[in-house]
Amino acid sequence: MSGIRVAMHKAYGEKQKIISMPPPKRVYIPLSQHTGKPAIAIVAAGDTVQKGQLIGRADGKISANVFSSVFGRVIEIIDFAATDGKRPHIVIESDGEEDGGKAAGFLPLALDAEPAQIIARVREAGIVGMGGAGFPTAAKLESAGEIDTYIINGAECEPFVTCDHRIMLEYTEEFLSGSRLLQRAVNAKKLIVAVEENKKNAIEKIRDVIEREGYDIKVLTLPSRYPQGAEKQLIYTATRKKVAPGKFPSSVGVLVSNVHTALSTYLAVINGEPLYRRVMTVSGGGIQNPSNLWVPGGALFTDIIEFCGGYSGEETVKLIDGGPMTGTALEHTDYAAEKRVGLLALLTPEETHKKQPSPCIRCGKCARGCPMRLMPMYIDAYALTGDIAKAVRYGLRECIRCGCCAFNCPAKRPLVQSIRLAKKKDEAMRR
Questions:
Q1: Domain CATH number, residue 131
Q2: What per-residue string of b and e applies to 373-403 under the rule 16 or more CB within 10 Å gives b?
């Protein structure tokens, strides 16, 4: 594969065990935490809610249910800041009750539940792709067709993030059982758990559990090369099948889900727990105590940073949610945690390599490192001139926004940002 080798900065969090963050005084729960239509609020100001209670109902097939992450009272429903503009959020004031309260949920199912039951529970629980894409998992399972291979993505190739690594170590039996439930939901013949070679302790633990339980699961060790965890690259590495431009993995008989998605499936099916929290990594030289946390949905990044001891005292020049390669730089910390976001990075100047961009020098390094075999320099150029049709001709829609081009660029062109804006314009024109 193409791609690049990057400094991974995993040492901050790879040995930090997952701990639970207590509920903050207020949570701001987005009604859109997924690809597709926002959920529709079914609560109003003044309503008392339980942790795990449905507060936003999915609006159609490509949407997802949203749940309260705390016990408390609905204060208001407002348009609140998100990384892609303002979105409706349900604001809940927590009553602080955590240990004594009984969370809402579903009746547990068995590991041998029927495929239709598993898919229905995944839909009810609001499960989405937890690796960043946020596509509703039930919609993926329902439209799968005939699947030969189900791949669980444990590559975690994005720098700084370690939440999936810790899940594989601390919830090994649970995420493997969730993987088997996803396999069962689509009657896939083979199940592969793919993990990058830099997570040797996770690979050993997974193999030990598979051998002990007698599971028919293949563990695939991947080279540590970015973006090894990108869906199409992972499928090719695991199966040597190529997914054509504009096609889904199911077109070659493959489905891919993230490790956290598998764990959330287990919690929903076996424990009856809806998706109202997630494991998040807080990392970088700018945070006092790098951590892997169970974070309540809707907790503000401000509260998460405070729980992790605040800023380290080092100069923090950039805050990013989702990772330095594919994430979004933040203007402030009053954004809410959501299902899709697995990393909050607080970076120092040494970790950003921040330089002012200069004009393209036509060296071709962006094209040589592109895992999709595109020519980012032309997509960027036409995006900047507003010629979206020509940007599409050069592969705008096939771009996976992995950031390899910007990382390789000696002129430090903001290639990902211009491509992201062009994609939004293209989508708006198509609508």
A1: 3.40.50.11540
A2: ebebbbbbbbbeeeebeebbebbbebbbbbb
